[in-house]
Amino acid sequence: MYAALEFERALARGADLDVTLVNHDNFFLFTPMLHEVAASDLDITNIVSPIRKLLRRVTFFHGEIEAVDLAQKRVGLSHGHEQHCHSLPYDHLVLALGSTTNFFNIPGLASRAFTMKSLSDAIVLRNHLIANLEEADFECGAGFRAPLLNFVVAGGGFAGVETIAAMNDFLREAVRFFPHLREDMLRIILVSAGRIILPELGEKLGTYAQRKLAEQKVEIHANCKVTAVTDHEVTLSDGTMVPTNTLVWTAGISPHVLLNTLPCLKTKGRVLVNEYLEVSEWPGVWALGDCALVPDLKTGEHHPPTAQHALREGRMAARNILATIRGDEKKPFLYSTIGLLAPIGKRTGVANILGVNFSGFIAWWLWRTIYLLKLPRFEKKVLVALDWTLDVLFSKDLVHFRTTRHRTPQPTQDEWQKPA
User: Fold this and answer.
1) Element holding 282 (H helix, E strand)
2) Phi first, then psi: what are they for 186, rounded to 5°?
3) What's the CA gap between 314 and 5, in Å, rounded?
4) For residue 416, what pLDDT is reported?
5) One domain for residues 83 and 156
6) Are 94 and 6 in contact (CB under 8 A)?
7) Residues 183-187: contacts with CB within 8 Å, 24+ apart?
8) Residues 211 and 260 in one domain
């Protein structure tokens, strides 16, 4: 998207280009706020921007990428209900395919776990949490109720911590509206493979976040992994067996499977590029974000697969393509992480900005302020700010949205009159 926005500016200045963006969704998702949709803090459409409103000069193709032929410089596409196929030629190709969830071949995990990668993931999880509370409210036996009120999140990184913090706030506020449930019936568990959570922020902030979550009654299993999962139970490597039908998996990512079909150099599935974000052995092919290994000239390592790096990589890739077309000199991608932030529930957070640590309310306020400013489009900024303001004044919404359409036979008059 940020590469396309850079081309959009070039086209506005009169550049002679034909640019096409291909995406399977017709919107741009602002993923840092995804957990707030799952926890009813934000309306489901307020963190997405329609691509056609963001791009007026760049052509948008709403469909799927089926194949890439680097030798013939063509991309195979499909779209529509009937999956019509197209073949699109290119002079320059930007690979920004992102990543997919890695389930580490744990049997049954992929089919049973919830993930937090897309807008539909957040909506499905939100519906599931509300449905579990509704069902548990009318279950008489504790044995039937416990699996509905136990919730497990696997992954001690940013996605896992932000998700469990939002879930914990939502569930503990919502449970008071269910007359047969009490807050002490809830069991909310975070499973982290590391010794401390949020290792990217350092031990001090990680320990602080861990302590704050524990104070909020989140059960943390550190140095622990999920080893097995069934429809009604999750088994952990420390021997704990949790009766539950809710496992949110945020414990790993893999490069997009389409990259496996490309005849270019890769490491652990990610495309190797030079400092200009170009695939060296294939001129005209560029890669960035989660699907690429981008060298960091300052450290000799690689840039981390985070949003703040990816959006700048997108801009730089577009600028280097424009420089190549004009015959100008390309510029290397040089960037150092400005900061890392994470909300951890109850209007508290942790942050490291330019090497300075922040925690508590100020870190939470910084997280909301910074990401609100980064959210695309003024209209969405206003809507999100309004949602946050209303969240202070009113309780979270408990509406259970039906995401599928059920057709059930209507009962006869005799059936209506049968005693319950």
Assistant:
1) none
2) -75, 140
3) 9
4) 45
5) no
6) no
7) 185/136, 185/145, 185/149, 186/149, 186/151, 186/217, 187/146, 187/149, 187/150, 187/151, 187/219, 187/242
8) no
Which DSSP string corresponds to 307-366? HHHHHHHHHHHHHHHHHHHHTPPP--------EEEEE-STT-EEEEETTEEEEEHHHHHH
Please state, in angstroms and rounded to a whole number, the distance separating the CA atoms of residues 337 and 301.
13
Q: How many helices (H) and strands (E) does the chain have?
A: 12, 24
User: Are 243 and 302 found together in one domain?
Assistant: no
273-304: b (≥16 Cβ within 10 Å) or e: bebbbbbeebeebbbbbbbbbbbbeeeeebbe
Please classify residue 337 by burial: count the beta carbons closer than 10 Å to its beta carbon, then call 0-12 exposed, 13-18 middle and 19+ buried: middle
| CATH number reported for the structural domain that contains residue 166 in this entry | 3.50.50.60
DSSP bridge pairs for 189 = 152, 219
pLDDT, tens digit, 9 for 90 and up, residues 13-64: 999 999 999 999 999 999 999 999 999 999 989 999 999 999 999 999 999 9
C-beta of residue 54 within 8 angstroms of C-beta of residue 72? no
Domain that holds residue 128: 109-251
Q: What is the DSSP string of 305-318?
A: S-HHHHHHHHHHHH
**201-204 long-range Cβ contacts below 8 angstroms, 24+ apart:** 201/340, 201/342, 201/350, 201/351, 201/352, 201/357, 202/352, 202/357, 204/357
The model's pLDDT over 325-340, given as tens digits with 9 standing for 90+, comes to 999 999 999 999 999 9
Give the integer Cα–Cα distance in Å for 96 and 104. Answer: 23
Could you tell me the pLDDT band of residue 408, with boundaries at 50, 70 and 90?
low
Counted domains in the chain = 2
Tell me the C-alpha distance between 256 and 1, whole Å.
Answer: 17
Secondary structure of residue 219 in the 3-state scheme: strand
pTM: 0.91
370: its two tokens: 């910074």
The DSSP secondary-structure symbol of 71 reads T
Is residue 161 located within the same domain as residue 292? no
Q: What is the mean pLDDT of residues 248-257?
A: 93
Say yes or no to pLDDT of 102 above 50.
Answer: yes
Residue 124 included in any domain: yes
For the chain, give the mean pLDDT: 93
Cα dihedral sign, 267-272-54-68: negative
- Gap between the Cα atoms of 107 and 226, Å rounded: 11
In the predicted structure, residue 401 carries a pLDDT above the cut 90: no
